[in-house]
Fold these 3 entries.
Entry 1:
Amino acid sequence: MMAVVIATPGGPEVLQLQEVEDPELKDNEVLIKVEATSLNRADILQRKSMYPPPPGSSPYLGLECSGTIEAVGKQVSRWRVGDKVCALLSGGGYAEKVAVPAGQVLLAPPGVSLQDAASFPEVSCTVWSTVFMMSRLSAGETFLVHGGSSGIGTFAIQMAKYWGAKVFVTAGSKEKLAFCKNLGADVCINYKTEDFVARVKEETGGKGVDVILDIIGAEYFRRNLDSLSFDGRLFVIGTMGGAVTEIDLRVVLSKRLTIQAAGLRNSSPENKAAIVREVENNVWPAIVAGKVKPVVYKYFPLSEAAEAHLLMESSKHIGKILLLP
């Protein structure tokens, strides 16, 4: 099969399409002929040798895909050859075929093209597990997502609105904020020209928001704590703005704050399977009902993975970027 290989750690130009061995299918896995895969920030870190794949995982990039099942392992009972699916991966999506544990596979949602279904597994599993399973966002609460125009952000806006929350977002341009508004965001804040803490306080009567989903990390940490309400919950899933910061525990204690962080990729297969089933039960109905839609900015052929990475690093895109074998 053909796959994108990292020739040596470095910039986008190190990504090369090469012929490689087909994946070996384990008894608990299915083999998917890839229709599309989606870019994630983790791919850029792995390309730079800053985020290695978990032991035993595919060495190739790609944390999600969609496609058609070509083969099933001996222990697999739910899936059949020919099923149209999408899947959460530990790696290997930038290829013509990928093997994945059967528990990390989802039926491609009706009403969504098989290509665009590749935009859902990573964002839906990340947002559902962090914002809903662990931070317990509920109807009537307030929710702030940083990077509202990102793949995570555009999905989180739609899902939080579907769940009945009031949604705040930050983004860096009028175009991105307008897009977030059209997706359903209630309060749109330009982080380049506005103080998001002051705006959150203004919009909530000084109370703050109940839940924050953050991809920035250290740069926003103290301001996030200031933006939370009593019993507020902060979930950190990225460190684009640094990884080391100081914390004033008096703020955490006085407001009874909860601070959590997680990385989905290194979770156990059992944990990923549990999240996937939760997503199937709680997120897929929203997609089937048309309440949550794919947001795809651009499609690239697999041979142009370097160009796709350049676009992601420019942060000019809104939503997801897909690669097509």
Note: The chain has a mean pLDDT of 97.
Entry 2:
Amino acid sequence: MGSLEAERTTVGWAARDPSGILSPYTYNLRNTGPDDVYIKVHYCGVCHSDLHQIKNDLGMSNYPMVPGHEVVGEVLEVGSDVTRFKVGERVGAGLLVGCCKSCKACHSDIEQYCNKKIWSYNDVYTDGKPTQGGFAETMVVEQKFVVKIPEGLESDQVAPLLCAGVTVYSPLAHFGLKKSGLRGGILGLGGVGHMGVKIAKAFGHHVTVISSSDKKKKEALEHLGADAYLVSSDATSMQGAADSLDYIIDTVPVGHPLEPYLSLLKVDGKLILMGVINTPLQFVSPLVMLGRKSITGSFIGSIKETEEMLEFWKEKDLSSMIEVVNIDYINKALERLEKNDVRYRFVVDVKGSKFDQ
């Protein structure tokens, strides 16, 4: 890795405590090592897991913490062993910046399941220094965890794909759900959920959005192209949709009962958990046993899947629904995100922001 001497400095916006309030923070970056890519950040998406981390919801936060893990930027410098990237190219980086490279998961190109993975922030890198994320002017990332951005895709549009997009794409690919003609459900219409609708529709699925109220019905059907909309508290409609779905992508990031959604699945249907929840979930076993249903989970996606998903996104001419903000709006954006007041992903215009205010 890079030398520990004469390190660069950069400026990011960091949380100092569980209040989660971000403010400017100057810190050191390692120099560009042989396998590293030095990136000028242009855009960074805002994910619900950023909220969990800055507020210490999972009880493992370390401060100061610069969040942000949906990074799109420009290569400023490459290490001597870097062959895949050149100065000036547009690249992306996601939630991981390291792995052991020797376990079964790493050898199978599913490094997101490596037990020694290194998070892009709130973690410690191999040189012993804390990792910091994409709400910053620059980053240094090992080339293995960097992807090229295909020509024709807008940078601000791409940012949410590097977590939310691949988080949906990965389980659809892994569980054999890419084929057309399936009936899928998207539970929760936030940043990940809206990606789920778009990607599932692009695979040729009949898509039902499931939400706790009807306030997003028009957006789901008219703007995102969903085929149906279910309000989970409407017992009659839920009963009418019983045994109708091949899978449900559950994006809800807070505790919720599983029984209502298990009843919507066909025989051999899958409930795929994606929301980060720090309380136990419960269900009664007959709802699973009597339909040979599966409750499973999926975590982001691999670098290979990220590259596949970006090409798929370009091929299908898809677009993200985003709200672009400057970094000085980030605390308000996080406050709104906590209230689910965003359609459907905040993206920070890092390049166009002033970081020293």
Note: Residues 303-315 form the longest helix (13 residues).
Entry 3:
Amino acid sequence: MHHHLRPAMMPVLAAAVLLLATLSQAHNITRILAQHPEFSTFNHYLTLTHLAPEINGRTTITVCAVDNAAMDELLSKHPSIYTIKNILSLHVLLDYFGAKKLHQITNGTALAATMYQATGTAPGSAGFVNITDLHGGKVGFGAENNDGTLTSTFVKSVEEMPYNISVIQISKILPSAAAEAPAPAPTQQNLTSIMSKHGCKVFAENFFVHSDALNNFNENLRGGLTVFCPLDDAFKAFLPKFKNLTASGKLALLEFHGVPVYQSLATLKSNNGLQNTLATDGANKFDFTVQNDGEDVTLKTRLTTAKITDTIIDQQPLAVFAINKVLLPKELFKGQALAPAPAPEPSAADAPAPAKGKKKKKKAADAPAADSNSDAPADSPGDAADDTADDSNGAVIPEGRSFGNVVIALGLVFGLPLVL
């Protein structure tokens, strides 16, 4: 029997082929370098500085690795781990350069942006690398702010996956005064000052009143912390709701915007899914879902979908991102929508229907005072269904399910019977 493709099914086939292509292109820089012992120190520090997951989360990228001798020279200067991250970030180019392309650079010279530039902390052009095709088949590399001096040369290609990732060896660490400058340790970072200076002043001011929240953020800073701070307009609109919360509710709301793990934007893009927060406590989940929406990264609770609008700071182990909405945990705002401005007391018709057969969790007392009598329990009968729906909308396909989806898609295309 011959199966003919119907025009209407062509998009399904295209999607299946694209999914297969995406799966086949996934790369892991740690595994690639593990096959080459001469790069073991470089590989170790990619993991230690959390650059490895950032590299794995990107495509069209080039990693300029150096051997153990070159790394020993860098480490002999005893830089902090934060400075090492800046230096190694300068060795990750946000473009694809295989061996062939390096020897065929248009006009002989190219200027490549690096992951150091992408952090937003590189001054001027310090985050760019000059690549020049020299005479005699050599290719030189140099930091753009190093007076154009090409201090390192191309040694060999380690692994190429066109045009996804290229791992090449260069002869030496690229010197850069900006990248080598002492980077502040996380304990020296003033969280409230950082947020206030970047459009989140109203949110930050609440930490002065609720010092327990600030202490919790600072205590997690050394081990790793990611903060999502609502911009001023968003938090101003939310203030009437915030003022109605109990003291413990206000504390939980602030802590809900902190995650006790350092995650860069690239890591968030590659690791979609549920995130515990500083407010998470046993049965009180206080979690939200990270989900990609194209190039945007969104944070979803049952009541809110906020978008990351800016990277305020990204210096391992601290990342601070601006978001366009206040995150509303279901534990505090059950079944309610956020009013854009101060509103009258909700009427009885607006109150959510009480859940059946469940006792209230203790966090229910933290709900807004005006609505406390009508709040549904922390785990209402609809919770399980909603959680399932949230999971099904996630951008990450669980391991083992990806190829099953492809088989189903191809079966639909060709009209084949499927046995599940």
Note: The two ends are 23 Å apart (CA to CA).
